[in-house]
Specification:
Strand order of the largest sheet: 1-5
Strand content: 5-15%
Number of helices: 14
Structural class: alpha+beta
Number of domains: 2
Order of helices and strands: HHEHEEEHEEEEHHEEHHHHEEEEHHHH
Helix content: 25-40%
């Protein structure tokens, strides 16, 4: 069914035209938010997939407006846009995902931006907690005082949880033919903790808001096609032992195959979006009905604050129709088309990509169950080309966060899809790659690969300078 229905079909456009997205309520006094991530340089615009019907395009545009709107504190003059916080990381989805792209890790020297979120958890302490993790009823256990992530912003009268500080130490890597590259290793600290010290066993993981293009087509890849490439014991001896993450999917009420997030911690687009609403914005949704967002029992002032849960929206702040429209928008985002795919340097770079072993994890093609805008209709195939296997891989100690999530251990990360990176990587200016944005270029990102990817990384180091340039040129074409 279409996402736009009942009051939204008749009222959403009128609300938008009346200034719902930027009127007086949006300008109410709120804490200073100078730490915003800002848009990446010349970020590609958000466009709908070519295969959307006119009705789906309307839903896409309404969802885009909701994605970009700034939420306000409750109570407000409209119950269709209040409920922010009380503690939060950003006021809008676009605050972390500017133009649906990735943000930048720093707002200013040493201070993390809204796009870099610090996830928190603790190890199990009881048999029941261990069972809940083993049965995938929880992906991780929240820190007792601060919840699942650190919230640096608070509504007036509330106490923010703290600020993340980021420092970098640069190290030189020597490449073939006398070339060098500088890698920056981050270290993280937290200042101004608002609710006492963290639990001494707290596990932390910085996560940069990723690009959102291509999430819809990934949901159409059959589970069997993903599991076909799983090889936990490396039975074929190629050094690659990808495995799936199994996580609870609240949208479907069952354990599912993780596909989304840096550790494949979400099994569906719906769950990914609603989790972000609840934790990043403090907005109650059908899957996360708590009006206080990520506030814990040790934050009584936060839990007692007014909320925007409304009977009009099924008892929450962003009801089923709002969530359906935002989901339709994210699902409908077009993957930018490849550029210069037939250029000689790009074709040579593609050959190098396969020769050094990158394609063992960044698989160029995956089948889809249904015809999609990303499928290659010209060849009569139902495939997409996301350059991922959607599996977990050990990426070595240098990238390890030491924090398990579902079945993923502290060294494992999901293979990041590469489609659509070209417009960001090739335009110049600022860019940030990997789960915490430490890499400033695609070459730096490659040089951080280790663990299962060590052999490929070493092969890239040994390439002639011209061949490395062609490899990067190919990546910029994807």
């Amino acid at each position: 069914m279409r996402a736009c229905r009942t009051w939204l079909c008749t009222g959403a456009l009128a609300l938008i035209l009346a200034g719902w997205l930027g009127g007086a309520e949006a300008g109410r006094s709120l804490p200073a938010e100078a730490h915003g991530s800002g848009p990446p340089a010349r970020a590609a615009p958000s466009r709908p997939s070519a295969g959307l019907t006119p009705a789906e395009r309307l839903d896409f545009q309404l969802g885009k407006a909701l994605f970009e709107r700034s939420w306000v504190a409750a109570p407000a003059s409209t119950d269709s846009g209040d409920g922010l916080g009380p503690l939060y990381n950003a006021r809008a989805c676009s605050g972390c995902h500017p133009r649906t792209g990735r943000g930048l890790p720093l707002a200013k020297e040493g201070q993390a931006s809204a796009a870099l979120v610090l996830h928190l958890s603790v190890p199990p302490r009881t048999g029941l907690e261990s069972v809940e993790l083993e049965q995938h009823r929880q992906r991780f256990l929240p820190e007792p005082s601060y919840g699942t992530q650190l919230q640096p912003l608070a509504l007036p009268g509330q106490v923010a949880e703290g600020w993340v500080e980021v420092r970098y130490r640069e190290t030189e890597v020597r490449l073939a033919e006398g070339e060098t590259a500088m890698l920056r290793r981050p270290s993280y600290g937290i200042r101004d903790l608002g609710y006492g010290p963290l639990d001494p066993e707290t596990l932390t993981s910085p996560r940069l808001a990723p690009r959102l293009v291509g999430l819809g087509p990934l949901d159409a890849v059959p589970e069997a096609a993903i599991l076909a490439h799983s090889d936990p014991g490396d039975s074929d001896g190629d050094g690659i032992s990808g495995r799936p993450n199994r996580v609870w999917d609240p949208a479907r009420g069952r354990v599912g195959l993780g596909r989304y997030g840096w550790k494949a911690g979400e099994a569906s687009v719906e769950a990914q979006i609603q989790s972000a609403f609840a934790r990043d914005l403090g907005i109650a949704t059908p899957l996360y009905t708590e009006g206080a967002g990520d506030c814990t029992g040790r934050q009584p002032l936060c839990r007692a604050a007014p909320h925007g849960n409304s009977r009009r929206h099924a008892g929450v702040e962003a009801g089923p129709e709002v969530m359906a429209l935002v989901t339709a928008y994210v699902r409908g985002l077009a993957v930018p088309p490849r550029r210069d795919a037939a250029a000689p340097a790009v074709l040579e770079g593609e050959g190098i990509f396969h020769r050094v072993g990158c394609a063992a994890c960044h698989r160029p093609e995956l089948p889809v169950a249904d015809a999609l805008p990303g499928a290659d209709a010209a060849r009569g195939e139902q495939v997409i080309r996301p350059y991922t296997d959607l599996l977990l891989h050990d990426m070595g100690e240098g990238l390890a966060d030491g924090r398990p999530e579902g079945d993923a251990n502290g060294r494992e990360w999901r293979t990041a899809p590469l489609w659509g990176i070209g417009p960001v990587a090739s335009v110049g200016g600022q860019a940030a790659w990997l789960h915490d944005g430490r890499a400033r270029s695609l070459l730096e990102a490659i040089l951080w690969h280790d663990g299962e990817a060590r052999a490929s990384r070493d092969a890239v180091v040994a390439l002639p300078t011209s061949s490395r340039a062609k490899l990067v040129r190919f990546l910029e074409s994807i």
